[in-house]
Structure formats: C-alpha cells, structure tokens
Design a protein that fits this description.
Radius of gyration of chain B: 17 Å
Subunit structure (chain B): Heterodimer composed of an alpha and a beta subunit.
Distance between the termini of chain A: 25 Å
Shape of chain A: globular
Structural class of chain B: alpha/beta
Oligomer: heterodimer
Helix content of chain B: 40-55%
Strand content of chain A: 15-25%
Organism (chain B): Sulfurisphaera javensis
Enzyme class (chain B): oxidoreductase
Number of strands of chain A: 12
Strand order of the largest sheet of chain B: 1-2-3-5-4
Structural class of chain A: alpha/beta
Largest sheet of chain A: 7 strands, mixed
GO molecular function (chain B): 2-oxobutyrate synthase activity; 2-oxoglutarate synthase activity; pyruvate synthase activity
Order of helices and strands of chain B: HHEHHHEHEHHEHEH
Radius of gyration of chain A: 19 Å
Protein name (chain B): 2-oxoacid oxidoreductase (ferredoxin)
Largest interface: A-B, 26 and 30 residues
Number of strands of chain B: 5
Strand order of the largest sheet of chain A: 2-1-3-4-6-5-10
Number of helices of chain A: 13
Chain lengths: 313, 273
C-alpha cells in the first residue's frame, strides 16, 4: 500500500516558517534567488523586511547569515540542497567553526529535483554536513514531521543545523502518530522482532510497505524513523540491533557516508550485526518523477525485501 | 593610549609618535616570532601593521554590545601575527603568547580564531570576511545600532568569487557603516599579482559597482587617517585601496613574494634596528 500524498514538505515548511516569524521577530530568512521554489516566499510576503534574496551567490549567502547571527538575529538560510553545498567550505569555516546560530534549511534534496537531472540532485549532502563539528542534521519524513520539528528547531535549538527536505513527493508516513520531535531521538514507526529497517525522509514509505510485505511472509519487521541523523539515537539503534539481529538502512542519498554509515558507526561500537545498505551509488539522471528515480536506482521496497531475504536466510 | 572614539579629532604629534612607536614594536615582534616559528606569514603581516595600528588605536570602538561597537575583520587571516602583535599592545594578549604562536600549547593559532581575545571573526580561508562584514553591518543597521565594520583584505584575495558576490551585495543594502580595505602589496602566494591575475582594474570595478573608492599609502599614518576620516563621512560602502609593501621594513623579504626569512636574518634586523 503506497499511501496517499499530502501537502509537499516544502509547502508545509514555507507556511510554518512564516507562522514562526510572527512570534519570533529575530528570525531572518535568506535565499539565493530560490525563494519561490523553496517556498521561502511565504515568509517574504509577510515579513519583507526580514527576508533577503542575496542573488545567485550561495557563498555570500552563508557568510552574510553568519554575520547577521552575531548581531543577535536567527538567520535561516534557505536553498536547494545541491547549491547550498557549493558553500560547504563557508559553512565549515565560518558557521561550524565559530559555532554560530545559523540554520540551513534545504529543499530539492535527493532525487526530488527529478527533471533537472544529476547536476541538481543532492546525494552527498548528509555526508558533508554530518562530518562537521557542531553541525546538527535533521531529516523530516513528511509534512507531519515538519510540523513536529520545525518549531523546536527554530525556537529551541541553538547553533549550526542542517534541515533536509525534498521538492514535491511527500507520501504520508507519520501523520497521526503520537510523538514529539526531540533532538537525538529516533521514533519507532512499526515494531518487529526479526529485522529492523532504519532510515529517514520520504523513503520510509517504502520501508513501511516492505515491512508490511515481510510480515505476510512471517518476518516480523520494525521500521525506525531516525530523523535526527546527528546527533543520532544510539540507544534505540543498539536496542533494535540486539532485538532483531539484522538491520537494513535506506536513504535517498549516497550509501557512502550517509545514514547507513551513521548507523554502522554506532553498531560497530555497540553491537555489530549483519547490515544491508540501500541508497545511491552513482550520480542520478533526469526523470519525470522522483518516484521513477527511486525505482530506477532500486531505492524502494523491493530492494528492502530482497535484502531482508538475504539477511534472514 | 585608549583605542577608538577618536573620529574627527586631528592627530597630534604626540599621538602620531605613539602610533609609530606601537607599529614599530609590533613590527619587531612579528619578526621576532620568526625565532620561534619559521612558518608564519611575515611578509603579509608586515604589510598590514600600520593599517591595524591605526584602526585599533584610533577608530575601532570596543565594547560588549555587538551593535554599538565596531568590528574588525581580518579577512586576509594569514596576517594574524600582525594582529596578535597589536592586540598585545592593546593589552588583550600577553606578550609571552607571541612566542608560542602555532605551538600546540599556545593560544595563538596560525590564523585568527574567535576564542582568542580581541578577534571578531575566525578567518584563514580567503574571500569570506567581506560577506560576514556585510551581514554584521546589515544586522547593526536593522537594530538601529551605531557600530561600524572594518574588513581588511589582500589584493591576491580579490581572485575569490565570493568577493564579487559580497561587493555587489553591500551596495544593494546601502551599507554606509562598512569600510573595506584592500591592501595592494602586489604579491600573492606564488608570484606577483600582475603575473597571476591582473588587479589594476579593481578600483574601477568597485567604483562602477557603487562603492565609494578611496586610496592611500598603507604605511603612512597621516594618509591612512585622512582617508579613513573621509570614508567615515561617506553615504555608501567604502573601499580603501591601501598601497603597501609586503615585508615592509624587513629588508631580506621586503617587496618580494617571500613570506619568510631565516632566524639569522631576524636576528640581524632586531640587533641593528
């Protein structure tokens, strides 16, 4: 069962960010000429004085935000995941190194900019961001996760933070579930005893579908929404490694240095178990939809089922 | 001598002599640091001494309130030894720390870090200071503060694309509380700037973009002070092209692409001076 879609994450994000700007007058939104596509425009419409389009200049955007932060504002840099990476060195050397209160919130991550092809598809950003000292990395699964996490991220968390969303494809994953977002905490979307699937973002829809299919085959499968990639919930990862003895990770990102790597780092220290990594291993390509790309590259429930079969054999 | 808050006050002979003596002490201390670490960027540091002395001892207003004090951003972070030597004269850093520069047990890093007293931005990667300065200046303006932002860049640094991004941005924001220096010492890491990429057109470009463009002798206090006074009155972001000499005052490397000299050369300089 692939669930119905809901408001795209970028729309939920843009509207909620504008709402948050109502109460918190220190929030400043900065974009590099992608205010419409990222939905930062909703903030611009309500608070033109606290909205800056710096033009197509991501490096300047990052250090401009850094400078604003030392005067007591809370700058939120909003861009396409891929092109914010162009300023990775600025993020490292200015924001992370000085531990400044700048939030980097991206849309169009993963394959979500499907039509534009490999130049626009960001499959390395999680690795690049989580390697930075002081940087936190948050990946909501759907619009409900955005609603849970964005107010906390903006109003309560200080310091550098990377918040990753896609473009349009937003299957319902966590709608109606009863949990609050907490930094460093993962969430159990479905419990199980034989196998645990862990991941973050829209691909958790495939994890849930795979779990459902596996249950029919008698394989009791847990699904974990990691959401807070850094810091990561080491305790829950260890708990499910001990409970199930088998882990599959899935991510809309390179398997090198991404979410699977983060889980593996925990397990090697705490309780190593057999793992399988589902994610990208090459650059992407153009397609008419994100869904086509996920299926083309095997980042889907079928691959999870195949990996599960290998692990339980 | 107190630093800052001396806008518009004509300089006295006494103050001028004081600035000269601070700069000379800092210059000697930069050369002396060579005894302890031969990898510091002496040439670029000596090029910046008078600019830093003038700003820190005459113009930069200190304070805890981020919007009602001035900011000094050394975007050409490799000139950190000069800044440290002057911060010693300001009393922010103990002189003994200078001799531990870049040592594992020392406070002073090879490039500025904000955990060092008196440092406003961690730099070292070229091209980033001006964008940060634009952000600080914009934040000050939005909050109605009186602070000003001084950014010091090198001529070689102008190769970085982010400078273009920030240069055009500052004009868009009409930041008349932002004063940038570009030190024109004619050298970058590998060779003369003229050999690597042309720089002569820079004043024309900055002017065309909308900056008020001034120039001065970056080693002459009177020239520096007159130019900064003019900059402070401007109603636009100001860039000051300061003609400097790399390695100024230290003959073994003066006006060459060399950043370093031997401890023997340093000894000769310190004993003869």
């Amino acid at each position: 069962m692939m669930q119905r879609s809901t408001l795209p994450m970028r729309d939920t994000f843009g509207r909620l960010l504008a709402d948050l700007g109502e109460k918190n007058k220190d929030i400043i939104v900065i974009t590099a000429d992608v205010g419409n596509s990222t939905r930062a425009m909703y903030f611009r419409e309500r608070f033109p004085d606290r909205y800056f389009n710096v033009g197509i200049s991501e490096q300047d955007m990052v250090n401009f935000a850094a400078g604003l932060s030392v005067t007591g504002y809370k700058p939120i840099v909003v861009g396409f995941a891929m092109f914010v990476m162009r300023a990775w060195e600025q993020i490292r050397n200015s924001i992370a190194r000085m531990n400044l209160d700048v939030k980097i919130m991206v849309t169009h991550a993963g394959y979500s900019d499907s039509g534009d092809g490999s130049s626009h598809q960001s499959l390395e950003d999680i690795a690049l961001m989580r390697v930075l000292p002081n940087m936190k990395v948050i990946i909501p699964a759907d619009s409900a996760d955005v609603k849970r996490s964005l107010p906390v991220v903006v109003n309560e968390l200080r310091g550098p933070l990377y918040y990753r969303m896609g473009r349009d494809y937003t299957p319902v994953i966590t709608e109606g579930l009863d949990y609050d977002f907490k930094l460093g905490k993962a969430y159990v979307l479905k419990d199980g005893d034989d196998l645990a699937i862990m991941g973050a973002g829209v691909v958790l829809a495939d994890a849930l579908k795979a779990a459902e299919e596996l249950e029919k085959m008698g394989i009791s499968t847990a699904v974990i929404n990691l959401m807070s990639i850094k810091p990561i919930d080491e305790d829950l990862i260890e708990y499910y490694a001990r409970k199930t003895g088998r882990i599959i990770t899935i991510e809309e990102h390179s398997i090198y240095g991404g979410i699977g790597s983060a889980v593996a780092e925990v397990l090697v220290k705490k309780y190593p178990v057999p793992m399988r990594f589902i994610g990208a291993t090459t650059f992407g390509r153009s397609a008419r939809s994100e869904r086509d790309l996920l299926d083309y590259y095997g980042i889907n429930y079928k691959s999870i089922i195949n990996a599960a079969m290998e692990l339980v054999k | 001598m107190e630093g800052g808050r001396r806008d518009g006050i004509p300089i006295s002979i006494e103050e001028l002599n004081k600035l000269k003596s601070i700069a000379e002490k800092a210059r000697r201390n930069v050369v002396k640091m060579l005894f302890y670490d031969q990898t510091i960027h002496v040439g670029s540091s000596l090029s910046s001494i008078e600019i830093l002395t003038t700003l820190l001892f005459r113009y930069v207003r200190e304070g805890k309130d981020p919007i009602n004090r001035d900011w000094l951003i050394l975007s050409k972070g490799h000139a950190a030894p000069a800044l440290y030597a002057i911060l010693v004269e300001k009393g922010y850093i103990n002189e003994d720390e200078l001799w531990k520069i870049q040592d594992i047990s020392g406070l002073l890093q090879g490039h500025p870090e904000i955990h060092i007293p008196g440092i406003d931005m961690s730099t070292g990667s070229l091209g980033q200071g001006l964008s940060f300065g634009v952000g600080v200046a914009q934040g000050i303006k939005m909050r109605g503060g009186s602070g000003r932002v001084f950014v010091i860049m090198g001529d070689g640094e102008q190769d970085e694309g982010e400078i273009w991004e920030a240069m055009t941005h500052a004009v868009t924001r009409k930041l008349d509380n932002l004063i940038a220096f570009i030190e024109m010492n004619g050298f970058q890491l590998d060779a003369a700037t003229s050999e690597v990429k042309p720089k002569d057109f820079l004043p024309d470009v900055w002017r065309a973009v909308g900056w008020k463009t001034l120039s001065c002798d970056g080693h002459d206090f009177i020239s520096l002070i007159n130019t900064i006074e003019e900059a402070l009155k401007a109603k636009a972001p100001v860039v000051i092209f300061a003609k400097t000499r790399r390695g100024m005052g230290f003959k073994p490397i003066e006006n060459t692409e060399k950043q370093r000299a031997s401890p023997d050369d340093a000894k000769k300089y310190l004993t003869n001076a």
